[in-house]
Design a protein that fits this description.
Blueprint (H helix, E strand, L loop, with lengths): L5 H13 L53 E4 L7 E3 L10 E3 L2 E3 L7 E3 L6 E8 L14 E5 L3 E5 L34 E8 L2 E3 L2 E4 L2 E6 L2 E8 L22 E2 L7 E9 L15 H20 L8 H13 L3 H19 L3 H5 L2 H16 L8 H13 L5
Antiparallel strand pairs: 1-15, 2-5, 3-4, 4-15, 5-14, 6-9, 6-15, 7-8, 7-14, 9-12, 10-11, 12-13
Bound molecules: magnesium ion.
Magnesium ion binds next to strand 7 and strand 8.
Length: 395
């Protein structure tokens, strides 16, 4: 028989967690502790919450969708204020805007963004001319150049065979698309691209960079490693990239149209200072130190002579990230105060402390499990002894 609805129990656990006393979901002493390559614990409540983003909507044949709330809009159908000719800074492009799309004027050259873009999620929609002219690489050819260096091919190869590594959705000259999900010419096609540039340290490549591409929602590049910039006829060679570069669209002599172009910058990877994923021992240590300092600062706000528990727990929590003698002594002295207060209680007041004390005992077990306190640490032994004396472990 259930005595309480689950939601009530969950609230109780949460309120224990928020008062700093917990040994369950939401507690800092729950999942595996940080280790040499992971600065965060498993299920770490100190980890920043993901930023809230309002999603956009999908495009239809007639109408472009709405970008997500944090997207940087490069072209929304109205003007080319974010773009310039690829021939020089602030040189206006000769590409034109028609019916909500920007259109390549053959012979006018590439168009590029004024802003410099690095690792990103990029959304682009394009349409080849509905009047079919030319074949192979000569039909509806353009290209999306990430950082101006890596071309994801734009081509009308709907019923138009060409060399596979030059098909729409290919990393041009490097890797063909997994499949050909193109719509007929004249219809808008969507490209959703995740781009990670190569990363070098001291002249050595530490990450080749990767590109993932969906064409019309179908995966065509599956985290494909980059081999440097792409080129025509020549084999790509790995080389360092700058931190960012302009997004370029190719003039290949065909009036290809584009609409609904936006991107979202991506956070750094672990190899370039990011703190999610598997980190080096040095980066992990530095981040753990930073988290510990943040928690200790927070602990100072919890100082309360009448109730030493919240500050004690927060200080103890910081030791999970970084051992520190002064903090450990402070926590131990607060624990001593708590225990003294506890021993003065009796009857209902003491009985009301049962769950709290058992949680504290669980926390000491957690700390011993991860080597943060010795197995025979005084608070742990005291709590175990006390629980035994009260018969609190009996069902
Ligand atoms: Mg091209």
């Amino acid at each position: 028989m259930k005595l309480f609805p689950t939601s009530l129990i969950f609230c109780a656990v949460l309120s224990l967690a928020s008062s700093g006393v917990a040994g369950n979901v939401g507690s800092p002493f729950y999942g595996d502790a940080p280790d040499e390559h992971h600065p965060w614990a498993v299920h770490d409540p100190n980890r920043p919450q993901p930023t809230i983003v309002t999603p956009g909507t999908f495009s239809s044949a007639e109408q472009p969708g709405k970008p997500p709330s944090d997207a940087v809009i490069l072209f929304d159908g109205s003007d080319l204020s974010k773009w310039e000719a690829d021939s020089g800074t602030a040189v206006p492009t000769k590409w034109v805007v028609k019916n909500g799309a920007m259109e390549c004027v053959p012979g006018s050259g590439y168009v590029r963004t004024k802003e410099q873009i690095g690792d990103c999620q990029l959304h682009v929609e394009w349409a080849a001319p509905s009047k079919v002219e030319g074949n192979s690489q000569g039909r509806g050819n353009s290209g999306v150049f990430l950082m101006g260096l890596v071309e994801i091919q734009v081509l009308d190869n709907y019923n138009n065979p060409t060399y596979p590594d030059g098909s729409a959705g290919s990393v041009y000259g490097v890797n063909p698309p997994l499949v050909n999900p193109l719509r007929p010419p004249g219809e808008f096609q969507t490209y959703d691209i995740v781009f990670r540039r190569p990363v070098y340290k001291n002249g050595q490549q530490v990450d080749s960079g990767y590109i993932t591409v969906f064409v019309n929602g179908v995966l065509v590049q599956d985290h494909t490693p980059l081999e440097g910039g792409t080129g025509h006829m020549s084999r790509s060679k790995p080389s360092p990239f700058p931190a960012a570069g302009p997004l370029k669209l190719q003039d290949h002599g065909n009036p290809v149209r584009y609409r609904n172009i936006w991107y979202r910058p991506l956070p750094p990877r672990a190899v370039e200072g990011g703190t999610d994923g598997v980190l080096t021992a040095e980066a992990t240590e530095a981040k753990r130190k930073e988290i510990a300092a943040m928690i200790r600062k927070d602990a100072a706000k919890l100082k309360d002579p009448a109730n030493p528990l919240p500050e004690m727990l927060r200080l103890t929590e910081s030791l999970v990230y970084e051992q520190d003698e002064e903090t450990a002594q402070k926590a131990e002295s607060l624990a001593g105060q708590y225990f003294e207060n506890l021993q003065k209680l009796s009857g209902d007041a003491l009985a009301a402390k049962k769950d709290e004390v058992k949680h504290l005992r669980d926390i000491t077990k957690y700390l011993a499990r991860f080597g943060i306190i010795p197995n025979d640490a005084e608070p742990k032994v005291q709590l175990e002894q006390f629980i035994k004396e009260q018969n609190w472990d009996k069902k």
